[in-house]
Known about the structure:
alpha/beta, Rossmann fold, Tyrosyl-Transfer RNA Synthetase, Structural Genomics Hypothetical 15.5 Kd Protein In mrcA-pckA Intergenic Region, Chain A, 15 strands
Amino acid sequence: MTYHPKSDFMAIMMERGYLADCTNMQELDEALSNGVVTAYIGYDATAKSLHVGHLLNIMMLRWLQKTGHRPITLMGGGTTKVGDPSFRSDERPLLGPEQIDANIAGMKQVFAKYLSYDDAPNGALMLNNAEWLDGLNYLEFLRDIGRHFSVNRMLSFESVKSRLDREQSLSFLEFNYMILQAYDFLELNRRYGCTLQMGGSDQWGNIINGIDLTRRVLDNEIHGLTSPLLTTSDGRKMGKSQGGAMWLNADMLSPYEFWQFWRNSTDADVGRFLKLYTELPVDECDRLGALAGSEINDAKIILANEVTALCHGTDAAATAEATAREVFEKGGVGDDLPTLTLSAEEIGDGISIVQLIVKSGLAKSGKEAKRLIAENGAKLDDAPLSEAGLVLDAAALSSPIKLSAGKKRHALVKLG
Length: 416
C-alpha cells in the first residue's frame, strides 16, 4: 500500500526521491501537519568546506524550512574530536581545536546560502555540539547515559559490523562516537524541542540510538528520517570526480568548475538530479529528464544553472554558462576558466608543457600528463598537443594560453 502524506514536507520528500527510511511515517506526518517541527542534521567539521555529497541533505533542510518548519544545522565541534567511524575502513585523523573552528567558519558560509537564520518561528539555528560535549563529566556521563547502551546491540550495527568483519581495528574512541551522537539528539530535544533527526542512510543506526536514548531518559517521542546514499548512474559516489571533491565554497572550487560538474552529468541522471538538487516542479524535471539526443544537453545546462544559482548566485551561473558557450561553441578563451598565473621567476629559462598540465590541475602527475599527450587527449590553444618534451619560455606565455584535457576540462595559463 502506498502511503499518501498529509504534510507538504513529507509529500516533497517522497515525490522528489529524498526518502530512504523513516521511523514512524504516519506519526511524523501528523506532527508535520499539526505545527512547526524542529529537525536537525549534524555535520562534522573535517574540512573547510562542504562538498556536493552534502548537498542532498542541505536541500532537505531547505525544503523543511520552505514548508514552515525549523531546521538546525548542528556543527560537530565536539564530535569531530572523536571522528565518525561509520563505514570507514580506518580511523579519521584527529584535528586540533583551531582547525575545527576554522573548518566550521568555512562551512557556515555555505549554509547561509540555503537557509534563513532569523527570529521567525521557522528561522534556522546554527548550533555547535561542543556547547554540551566539551563540559561533560566522564563519570556522570557514564552513569547517566552510558548505562542505557547495550554493547551487544552496538556491535550489531552495520557500520561497526562491517569494520569488525574485515578484522580492522575499531578504537574505543570511535566506539564512543555513536553514544555522543545519540546524546546530541537528547540534548537538542531537551534544549530546543527538536523532534526529528535526518541524515544519510549510513546514519540510520546512530539515529535509532538517539531516539532510543531520548525515550529512556526524557520519555519523549522523537523521529528519524534518512535519505538514500546516492551514486551516479555509472556507479560513482556522488560528489566525487577525477579532480577530487566537488567543494561548495567558491575559494576551494570555482563556480565555473562547479557548473561544469553538473553540466557533465550522464544522461540517465538528469531527471533525478533535477528533482533532488533544484526547485523546479516535478513534472518539469520529468519532462527535461526524458529528453533524448542532443536535447538532453539543454536539460543539463538548466540543471547546471539551477544548482549553481542556489550555491553561488544567479550571476555566477550566468557567467559560467557564457564562459562554457564561448569555450565550447566558439573555441574562444573564457575569462572565467580556472587560471594558473606564473611569475617570470617560476618560468625561468622555460617550463615544460608536462609541468604546466600538472600545475594547472588537468593531471595529477607528470606520468598522467605524458599519457594524456600520448593518447592525443591534450590540446594547446585548441590544437592537438603531440610533443611531451615541449618547453615554453616567458615570450610564449606573454599572452594567455589555453590547455585542454579531453573535451570538457580546460585551464588558462598566463604570466603574472
